[in-house]
Design goal:
The chain is mainly α. It has a single domain, classed as Four Helix Bundle (Hemerythrin (Met), subunit A). Helix content is about 65%, strand content about 0%. It is built from eight helices and two strands, in the order αααααααββα. A two-stranded antiparallel sheet has the order 1-2.
């Protein structure tokens, strides 16, 4: 029987990375506009943003508590173990998302009491960098968290069905993305959700080249499928590593 602190550590991490944080991502991606909102007559629905922020803060706090719990009971962080490295990377990226969100810049536009000019409305380089770092860092954190979960199951010699059950998470995540992306009215950028589909989105000038940051009607992304492929690759590498270690231990000295 595993110690209670390990079960609590696993529970906090799984709650954060399998339930709370992914749900916040799905809400931010597909619920900027709701069915009863009356879009595009009614714009700038703030419910999705507030829900996303609350869930991301809650998830990062849960995963930080899980890390501190393990640190308190073991007295150290063994960075030579894959589980520790993956976990630290996921927690660090989680806090990076918090910092990026706080420093995302000003809003601007006709719905901002502060005035028209703003990082988001003008799509300044600051906002452009935030959007790509926030998007990429979030999905990378999910991949590292699942790798940490798999390596943690190996660490405690968990039965194989637990690893198989963990694989269901990216499958459900990919299925949700596929289902919601079929509803074209949900696939909308935050720019169009806040200021309407008819308002042209500024283009960003970088080094003399015009770069379109994002079209008003963004094509559906498939990060769930990419995440699944990445996790399968990590699982194969881990399996091969375990096989090599087993063969080396079985050799006569």
């Amino acid at each position: 029987m595993l110690p209670e602190w390990i079960l609590l550590h696993a529970g906090l991490m799984l709650t954060a990375w399998v339930l709370v944080l992914p749900a916040g991502i799905v809400i931010a991606r597909f619920f900027k506009v709701t069915a009863r909102q009356g879009y595009p007559r009614v714009v700038d629905n703030r419910i999705w943003f507030k829900t996303h922020v609350v869930m991301q803060y809650a998830g990062v706090i849960c995963t930080t508590l899980g890390l501190l719990l393990a640190w308190f009971h073991t007295g150290r962080l063994n960075v030579g173990m894959p589980h520790t490295l993956f976990g630290l990377g996921a927690v660090a990226l989680g806090w990076l998302q918090i910092v990026l969100g706080v420093r995302r810049g000003s809003k601007g536009g006709p719905t901002d009491p502060a005035g028209m000019r703003g990082d988001h409305y003008d799509m300044t380089p600051h906002r452009w960098a935030f959007e790509w770092l926030h998007w990429g860092g979030g999905y990378l954190a999910l991949a590292l968290a699942l790798a940490a979960a798999w390596s943690g199951l190996r660490l405690v010699n968990a039965p194989g069905w637990m690893s198989a059950a963990l694989l269901a998470f990216p499958l459900v995540f990919a299925a949700l993305y596929w289902f919601f992306s079929r509803q074209r009215w949900r696939v909308i950028s935050s720019y169009a959700a806040i200021w309407g589909p008819t308002r042209p989105k500024p283009r960003l000038r970088l080094g003399g080249w015009f770069v379109s940051v994002r079209s008003r009607r963004t094509p559906p992304r498939r990060p769930g499928l990419v995440l699944l492929c990445l996790l399968l690759l990590l699982w194969v590498i881990w399996q091969r590593r375990g096989l090599r270690l087993g063969q080396s231990k079985s050799r006569p000295i």
